Amino acid sequence: MESVKSQSYEVHINELAKAALNQHIAKTSYSKIFLLVDENTKAHCLPIFNEMIDFPIDSVLEIESGEENKHIRTCLQLWEDLSNLDGDRKSLLINLGGGVLTDMGGFVASTFKRGIDFINIPTTLLSMVDASIGGKTGVDLGSLKNQVGVINQPQMVLIFPEFLKTLDPRQTKSGYAEMLKHGLIQDSSYWNDLIEDGDFTDAACIQRSIAIKNEVVLQDPTEQGLRKILNFGHTLGHAIESYCLDNHDKKTLLHGEAIAAGMILEGYLSHEMRGLSKLSVDEIKKGFLKHFDKVDFTEDDIDAILQLLKYDKKNSHGNVNFVLLQEIGKAVTDIRIPEELFQKAFAYYKE
């Protein structure tokens, strides 16, 4: 399967990925090779990875899995580990894990000794089609998502769909939400194909999502304009995710579950603000609720979620900026929403 070429690196899939990794290590004189895992990828993915490589790993670093561990304290421990294990500027960090691990591993590598090389090997569908692509790295600030980080590109991203067999279905479906987003913002035919119960874990579908995101990032690597469309569903979705993470009486949502709700809500806002047809809004809602459980929001929940919008990374000059749809397959950025529409959007979601 053909690799996807970005500006400074490539995304390789299956056998091409294996060959690319071994060739890169063979021709690059790294002083140390570190591998970052969590307890899940150590148990389920590391044995598979060890069968793929033709080179030794100097040290395996382990962190605890979960969004609640994506914070600066974990980074501090990793920086200390790298230093104690004689890591230097010619070291390499290979990140073997989901979006939390590749985000944080990329950030740790980008800041240790002012920057060492890193390679992402995503093991969840979410990280394959989204988190590991595009160079965004970082950590959360408390329960607020991705408030600290840098944009820095990996040496390569390697996709092995066989790792998806190690996941429970809920984790896999979380990545499916991001794939549906790619269709909504850029490719209506892809949206139609995905929403019809196809095998979204198929390598061809994964490659298509990667290609869509890569095409956007190539045109706007530092998110000055076009790249903002990748945040459709994320303004409200991130606020929902943060709120549920910080409130123990609420069910903790996976990223894809939260942004699925966010895309329904922002689909409704698109109807009100940009003329997205009611037929399309209903199609989006029906499509997501076919695959994702509806989240129960009280009035107090909604008020608290809306308060979190002020922390969104797309905000500028005190304004909360939304990505909306003009039609399925065409997104627009930097839209301000009148406050009264938020309640209408949640009412539509709850219908």
From TrEMBL:
Its EC number is 4.2.3.4. One of its GO terms (molecular function) is 3-dehydroquinate synthase activity. The keyword Ligase does not apply. CDD domains: DHQS. Residues 175-315 form the 3-dehydroquinate synthase C-terminal domain. Its cofactor is NAD(+); Co(2+). InterPro entries: Dehydroquinate_synthase, DHQ_synth_AroB, DHQ_synth_fam, DHQS/DOIS_N, DHQS_C. It comes from the Bacteria. Keywords: Cobalt, Lyase, Metal-binding, NAD, Nucleotide-binding, Zinc. Residues 61-173 form the 3-dehydroquinate synthase N-terminal domain. The keyword Transmembrane helix does not apply. Catalyzes the conversion of 3-deoxy-D-arabino-heptulosonate 7-phosphate (DAHP) to dehydroquinate (DHQ). This is 3-dehydroquinate synthase.
